[in-house]
Structures are given as structure tokens and as C-alpha cells.
Write a structure and sequence with these properties.
The chain has 7 helices and no strands. Helix 1 crosses helix 2, helix 1 packs across helix 3 and helix 6 crosses helix 7. It has 2 domains: about 55 residues, Orthogonal Bundle (Arc Repressor Mutant, subunit A), CATH 1.10.10; about 70 residues, Winged helix-like DNA-binding domain superfamily/Winged helix DNA-binding domain (Arc Repressor Mutant, subunit A, Orthogonal Bundle). The N and C termini lie close together (about 10 Å). With about 170 residues, the protein is mostly helical.
């Protein structure tokens, strides 16, 4: 799963929104220190060179990276219906959703540069060469950083004993 680009039929978030989300965290931190208060949307949009609407769209996109419980009520009223009641059959993409949620739980443990490379590679569908040109580094360095990020995620997800590619079988 970690070594291939996801063929997502779930919610997909535009590549630009994902990049903006990464930059938003850094800008919010910087502005908080500079202004001595939490920055408002206008401050953040100005720092990032985007409109307030684009900023809000990126924040909404962040919700696509979290999952709701199937036991969640559909409404706050007297209706006892739950989200699971709306499902008609097993969804073949559930395993991918579980994998994505597992990755999301460890995402912040990767350096921002490696996060950005993985986003550009697997969500932006850019080649290593295109990523290298955007980041001003060599394609070989992109390859090393990508491999290191995927190995780190694999280790976090599977544990150090099962994360080694040599310890994996053909069926993996």
C-alpha cells in the first residue's frame, strides 16, 4: 500500500489544497509569534498569497483526512438512525480508508519536506524529476527522501521487526 499511488475512489482533496494545508500550519505559527496573537483569516491569506476563500477551502479539505464512526448519529434529533444504517453493503475501499487513517495518525512524525514530497508524488502524481525541479534538489535526493519517508511510515505502522523489506514475503 505504501509503495504505490492510491487509486482513490474516496474523497479526494485537490493537490493545491494539500500543499496549502502544509504551508498554513507554518504560517500560523510564524504569524502568532510575529503578531503576539492568533492570526485571523485575512492575516493568513495575506501571508500565503491566497484568497480567504481558498484558505477556507483548504481547511475544509483537512476534514477529508478524518473518519467518522459508523455509530455516529445521523442527526441531533430524536431519530436513532446511525451512519451504519445508511450503508447497503460492504465497501471494497474500506481497507484503503483504514490504511489512509493509519497513515494520517503518523503523518506528523515525518519531516515537512518528506510530507511535501509524498503529497506531490502520490496525490499530485508528479514524477521524482518534477518534484526535484520544484524543490531545487536532485532527482536522486528526492528518491532517497521518498524511500526514507515510506520506510519510516512502514516502521511506524508495522513495527521495526516487520518493516524490513527483507522480512516481507511475496504475498506482501
Amino acid at each position: 500500500m505504501l509503495g504505490t499511488a492510491p487509486a482513490t475512489t474516496m474523497l479526494t482533496v485537490r493537490f493545491g489544497c494539500q500543499e496549502l494545508l502544509l504551508e498554513l500550519r507554518d504560517a500560523a505559527e510564524d504569524l502568532t509569534h510575529e503578531l503576539g496573537r492568533l492570526p485571523d483569516d485575512a492575516d493568513l491569506a495575506g501571508r500565503l498569497g491566497v484568497t480567504i476563500e481558498e484558505l477556507r477551502e483548504a481547511r475544509q479539505a483537512a476534514g477529508a483526512f478524518s473518519a467518522l464512526s459508523l455509530d455516529a448519529p445521523l442527526s441531533g434529533g430524536d431519530d436513532p438512525a446511525e451512519l451504519i444504517d445508511m450503508l447497503g453493503a460492504d465497501d471494497p475501499d474500506v481497507a484503503q480508508a483504514v490504511d489512509m487513517e493509519a497513515i494520517a495518525s503518523h503523518w506528523e512524525q515525518l519531516p515537512r519536506r518528506e510530507q511535501r514530497i509524498l503529497i506531490m508524488r502520490y496525490y499530485g502524481n508528479l514524477t521524482q524529476e518534477q518534484i526535484a525541479a520544484r524543490l531545487g534538489i536532485s532527482q536522486m535526493h528526492v528518491s532517497r527522501l521518498q524511500a526514507r519517508a515510506l520506510a519510516r511510515l512502514r516502521e511506524l505502522l508495522l513495527g521495526p521487526d516487520d518493516a524490513s523489506p527483507r522480512g516481507r514475503t511475496a504475498r506482501d
